[in-house]
Amino acid sequence: MIQGQDFIFVGLQAIDGNIGSNSVNIAREISHNNRVLYVNYPLDRLTKIRKKNNPIIQKRLDVIKGKSPELEQLSKNLWTLYPKCIVESISRLSIDWLFDKINKSNNKRFAARIQKAIDTLGFKDYIIFNDTDVFRSFYLKEILHPKLYIYYTRDNMMSMPFWAAQGVRIEPMLMAKADFIVANSAYLANIARKFNENTFDIGQGCDLTLFDKKHIQATPKDIANIQKPIIGYIGVLFTLRLDIEIIAHLAKTKPDYQVVLIGPEDENFKNSNLHSLPNVHFLGNKKTEELPSYLNCFDICINPQILNETTIGNYPRKIDEYLALGKPTVATKTIAMEMFSEHVYLAENKKEYVELIEKALNENTPEKEKAREAFAKTHTWENNVEKIYQLIQKFLSK
């Protein structure tokens, strides 16, 4: 454990965002024993125009206008910064020299606000933890002179169109100058290691507090009358991440299985033939605190992940949530999923999904359920952060 250290977090996700964030979880865990400044991304000019009615953007504008404070204290050791600046929107700019010039100017504006917060809080010998903020935080090591600069890779972001113009050029350079890199999967660690030999797979942390059988509430009404066995999935229903063909094949091959899907749908899912299959049930999006009660009704959990450059290296947190309730789980086989191989059935195609689901139903035992629960509970944020601490101590000792 490290105590009494100052940390600065930058990244792609804001602490007041609408979706979960690894870096927010890591920052909160570190703040139990250290001072942490969590820096939200600065507002860019195009976002200011396009999303001016979004409450999150309105808060940033209030800060810029002086109506709201730039620096807020969230707990004893945790502060968050809403940078009082606007940066230029350059992600699509394909002219390298012009991008670099404007990006350096953006970094200076951003760094100036961070430096002001550093001075206000009296941070000394701080460590910067960068969660994939490739552009806006590219020069922070040179401008702010941290004791250590850690880069965190937890998604294959460069496979997405947004990063095509400059991300694929810039990220390797940023990785190369980091003191060390941490990744949440073996796949992503292998990619990063090409640019920085000091790269380490630290796995993933999860908050499994809710996913405990002791907290299960009454069976939800909209699942109570669905016949068994229930094959279930919880998460976003997006074709970028899920294979509709696997789900359709399962439902058609096993009409006595009831497939329950919980989560928001993209247009492809909304328009798919899954909605015409009598044994496929879309229950919509649910509140986080409701999910364990639904999950507890599943006989088998699935993660029919489609394989592409975006998903192949992902560490799916939902697997830990499934296992925390002891549920037999069938998931798509990837390098990142190999660490689960003793507790999860890994399928390579839609035919294997059907075979392994049937196998999982037939051989489930209370002993297997307890082993799954115990394994999931090793993946806490506390354990994840301890791995980061060990690496920090190692590099500081040099």
Average pLDDT level: 93
Q: Estimate nothing, just give the exact number of structural domains.
A: 2
| Cα Rg | 22 Å
User: The CATH topology of the largest domain is what?
Assistant: Rossmann fold
Estimated structural class: alpha/beta
Summarize the structure.
By secondary structure, this protein is an alpha/beta fold.
Give an overview in words.
It is a single chain. By secondary structure, the chain is of the alpha/beta class. The chain folds into 2 domains: 6-205 and 380-396, Rossmann fold (3-Layer(aba) Sandwich); 213-376, 3-Layer(aba) Sandwich (Rossmann fold). It has 15 helices and 16 strands. It has helices spanning 22-30, 45-50, 55-64, 96-121, 140-144, 167-177, 186-192, 221-224, 244-253, 267-270, 291-295, 317-324, 350-363, 366-376, 381-396, and strands at residues 6-11, 35-39, 43-44, 71-75, 78-81, 86-87, 127-131, 148-153, 180-183, 199-201, 230-234, 258-262, 280-284, 300-303, 329-332, 345-347. The strands form 3 sheets. An 8-stranded mixed beta sheet has the order 4-5-2-1-7-8-9-10, with helices on both faces. Strands 13-12-11-14-15-16 form a 6-stranded parallel beta sheet, sandwiched between helices. Strands 3-6 form a two-stranded parallel ribbon. β8 (148-153), α6 and β9 (180-183) form a beta-alpha-beta unit. α1 (22-30) crosses α15, α9 packs across α13 and α12 crosses α14. The model has no long low-confidence stretch (mean pLDDT 93).
Keywords:
398 residues, alpha/beta, Rossmann fold, eight-stranded mixed sheet, 37% helix, globular
